[in-house]
Amino acid sequence: MLYSLYTRRLRRLLAGLPKPEHVAIVMDGNRRWARGAGYDDVRIGHRFGAKHLEQFLQWSSDAGVTCVTAWVASADNLRKRDSAEVDYLMELTESVLADHVRRDHRWRLHVAGQLDLLPDSTARALKEAVELSRDRDAGDLTLAIGYSGRLEVVDAVRSVLDDAAAEGTSLEEVADRLTEEEIGRHLYVPGLPDPDLVIRTSGELRMSDFLLWQATRSDIEFCDLYWPAFREVDLLRALRTYGRRRLERSS
Ligand code: IPE
Ligand code: MG
């Protein structure tokens, strides 16, 4: 009751504030959440976490956010965590995340990351969901998976050089012509606006190689809650802080 009053109050307040077009979310704290809730099996935290993204997308779209990037797993997570945990994350990506995109007709899906780090079935499920959602225009959802911000920049530069080699352009010309825009066009998901706001849950105060290129000018909100415990009011509060800061800066 109190919660819904508070939610409505926040929504009213947000109506008068600038709002972000693109919100990026670092969904951190699944395992700590699971342990804190008394589950020995941390995979339960990942399951709640994956399902939780569906709610977050609903809240975001209710709040008028049309572009969301969600960090599902870093390249390091896939390389360094034990294989049973990684297998389970991949299974969730297929059965929860890709499946959600199939069913929720709002979101056009993009994938950022090194798809060759993923098992074939996961890469295939994501590619199919990208194809299936290609013509949707209500919102853009990017799943960052097997993602590293530094590697994204390396891959972008490599792709600029590959194109130049294919066209027979000399290295001198490439160096001469290289601009921010040119690198931007070779990122994993070109054409999206930069994130206005990045939210990280679980109280960790780091960017951890997320959206290195795209988030240089983003506002950042750190939230102490573990990802599965993050509520709509926490999103609305982050949007309120963002809106107030933007107002101050523009005045
Ligand atoms: C976030 O939760 C999900 C992934 C990175 C895959 P964590 O698995 O990082 O959970 P904590 O941070 O260890 O609690
Ligand atoms: Mg973590």
Automatic annotation (TrEMBL):
Residue numbers binding substrate: 29-33, 46, 74-76, 81, 200, 206-208
UniProt-annotated catalytic positions: 28, 77
Cofactor: how and how many bound: Binds 2 magnesium ions per subunit.
Enzyme Commission code: 2.5.1.-
Xref: InterPro entries: UPP_synth-like, UPP_synth-like_CS, UPP_synth-like_sf
Function: Catalyzes the condensation of isopentenyl diphosphate (IPP) with allylic pyrophosphates generating different type of terpenoids.
Protein name stated in the entry: Isoprenyl transferase
